[in-house]
Amino acid sequence: MRWTDIQQIAAQLATKHPDRAPLSVEFPEVRDLVIGLEGFSDDPARYNVRILESIQLAWSDRKD
Questions:
Q1: Number of Cβ atoms within 10 Å of the Cβ of 57
Q2: What domain of life does the native source organism fall in (predicted)?
């Protein structure tokens, strides 16, 4: 899984952290949570704020 696999990442975060409020998670923690996901194999440094925001929003959409 790579940084650009937004929907797959969001699905795993929603499953792994069902009690978290995605929009209250700070970007550094979103980054750490993604890096810690099983199957994540991208370069941990190849992200940007836009990617983290997209992940956070997609994760939030799965909580509704």
A1: 13
A2: Bacteria
